Write a sequence for this structure.
């Protein structure tokens, strides 16, 4: 049985996980990277995940590859339409309902939600204005949301995804929904090199290595990677989750491919 | 022989084509929609296109579908790296070198180039700042170009494409170049409904119906349409341009498709 | 003796003061509007104010004129250079050091400080940029901080005052300091009608009714009101604070005045 | 007789004045700095100024102090409500009606007017928005014009003055009008050091050295300088313009002054 909960982890510098006291009940203590399996294996609704989490102590282990305890906040969605965010601030677990359903990296969710209040004057509709008796037409489609930030930082991506999703047309079919999600993700795409750090080396720049779309009603995971424009799907209905089944890893970094018209 | 010139036409409200006087030499008069064939059939470098155009009078015919003379400015690129824009303002043809190589819709090219001067403080590099003795780290990658506009109007798209192309990493292969172009185009993607006009009907909203990438060194035309994420290519080297060859039209609106991983 | 503490109260919708339990020690309970007298009468350094406040319960009384308990957060400065903010969130008093020294209205201080991280790429210095091999000069002085918000909301005023103060030249004399403060306040001035609410009536628009500058080293209070450009000062050194002295109120709303050159 | 025409000159880098040919009629040639006297002495309406200018050739003399021919465009207003701008581009005089009535420095007027089309979605009114079913209130007064630029470059000042003037309340008296103009000018005030150039020396930073308000109905010139907040007036009705009258210069740089309340 697949629970239909979607679990994502995003970077939140400054995160501090909980302290485990020596006399804790070991069955109530869990390391961050064991959390997905524990949640996906035990719950199917966020309401019960929340109750479950409140009884647990969650600690973070240093990651060899990263050389640090990865500072993460968690975004969860269930198949009933619920959305929830878990953060670890000053060693304390914070669980938030997330009626907006969006999460990006830093800073904490409540800051992002408050920040939406700075963009309440934006509109999907073309505008014009009369100034000193003269009518000025907007520059065309999109003139109602001039002022929306276009950069690659997490606060700007949060605003962009939130508002453009709100402005977009309702979709009718599953395929339309997937394509709308993909076009929305396009608007926060980071081409390689656009967002750099001084210095060189593997972490010298960021790019959108891949995007994923998780359809937790139809139990399909879509993804697209940086070097290939084609969309791939993992249909979880076709995967056996019975004990003892061997699973291959999926290679996400797909190679460039193009379809010849002739 | 394929000339390697790329010819694009973009919407510029307010365009006024030239007047044709009754005693004009008919061989020096050409309707706008005959211009691509005339240019692509007679020239291979923008320098000579420019000389050719200066001798011609270009008029615009009302288009039945649109119910108006389409107001267009033209963006041309040749295989030698040249880029040029042609506009029709107050009935006069203006030909501009376009060293920046970018064009969007309204307003005229010189305005867009002047407008770039408002964004000279933006940088690809992450930033931090000391304010009153306290260090504030930026919000992460992308903090050097906060202030870049994120909306769907042509001036904002012009700025975004220009700067993000400038910031991006150099590419080494043809495939990397295609994918960089595609990711840059993602940053100006318009999901359906995000940019609306009051009222309803077919012209009630704009979306990015398709994107094209024209490789005029390798003579390939790539495209991707709204409903399908896969990339298609027309390899002009495989097309016969000899007289009498029948050509089929290419359907650009591709249907949703996805590749199953299992 | 004048303590040299500056006490300001600013609007913070959503504020909830503390609950007073029936069995509280009455000497440890104080109404918000009695707080200025209590602080200014008992302390001269913020460190001790902080300790004092932590022992008190602060409640808010409904104000007849306003028809509500005014939702306020408090900004304090002492003559030793300290700065502190007090907020009441969900019935709990929060005391923050404020090394940035700035406060505006909504939202809470920590949000504003986090928000500064969105503006770390701004600079006082004129800029130019090379784009695709062409040099674009900025539009002149000020081109280093294009992207700073210009509107009248409290987050934008917070950013503007913080950054422009940081960018401004060091002052050498008291008079230069006063004038710099006044010019900084100009940059957040709200002309009457610019910031409106739908509907009419006395609260239908906001304007900067007056500005004050508090020099807590020299113990002078400067102010300027909307209808008169002249600067006024209350020199606290000239005011008798001995018991039994009668004090007149000061009329802050000065009338238009102008100095004739001839 | 005072003509009621207001003549201002503002910095426009790239300006090229007209060439004077050796066989020009000397009575039709005038140096830029003689232009104010010629216009103010010969005309009282912009319509006739325009006709007059079209017959003249205007050249620019190198200025010893500046070490260059000052590149200026001219803003003129008459007492009938007319407004006009004169620019010198590629050695050609351009005369524009300026129904918007605003001018700042670079770039040329038509660019600024086109640029207003980017701000047609801004409003004086407070806003709120529903996003994904949740209502977000704006951050208070001013939330309708978030997105207005706050920096010190001429394009941003042009937008700010234009829109805030449009949003402001109608004034009823002369004094209210003067104070509104002053508050609008506050919003484009540049505190010393905020707008810098790399390097040091007298031209290393810009500040708003003085502001002037010209009331061409009542024939009064108001000014305020950087170091003194008081408003000064030159009442032209009191000035004798008869031949042979000696005029003293007016010192604009007023010293700090403050009015003691006690």
């Amino acid at each position: 049985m697949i629970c239909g909960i979607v679990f994502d982890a995003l970077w939140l510098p400054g995160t501090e996980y909980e302290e485990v006291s020596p006399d804790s009940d070991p069955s109530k203590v869990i390391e961050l990277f064991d959390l997905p399996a524990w949640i996906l294996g035990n719950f199917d609704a966020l309401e019960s995940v929340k109750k479950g989490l409140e009884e647990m102590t969650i600690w973070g282990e240093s990651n060899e590859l990263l050389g640090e305890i990865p500072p993460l906040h968690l975004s969860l969605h269930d198949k009933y339409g619920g959305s929830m965010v878990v953060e670890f601030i000053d060693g304390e677990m914070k669980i938030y309902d997330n009626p907006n359903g969006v999460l990006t990296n830093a800073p904490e969710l409540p800051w992002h939600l408050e920040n939406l209040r700075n963009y309440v004057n934006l509109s999907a509709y073309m505008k014009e204005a009369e100034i000193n008796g003269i009518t000025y037409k907007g520059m065309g489609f999109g003139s109602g949301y001039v002022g929306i930030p276009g950069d690659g930082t997490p606060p700007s991506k949060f605003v962009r995804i939130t508002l453009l999703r709100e402005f977009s047309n309702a979709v009718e079919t599953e395929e339309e929904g997937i394509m709308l999600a993909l076009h929305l993700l396009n608007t926060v795409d980071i081409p390689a090199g656009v967002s750099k750090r001084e210095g060189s080396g593997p972490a010298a720049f960021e790019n959108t290595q891949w995007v994923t779309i998780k359809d937790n009603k139809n139990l399909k995971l879509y993804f697209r990677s940086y070097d290939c424009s084609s969309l791939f799907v993992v249909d979880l209905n076709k995967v056996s989750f019975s004990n003892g089944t061997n699973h291959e890893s999926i290679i996400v970094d797909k190679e460039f491919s193009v379809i010849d018209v002739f």
Observations:
- Residues 1-99 of chain D form one domain.
- The two ends of chain D are 44 Å apart (CA to CA).
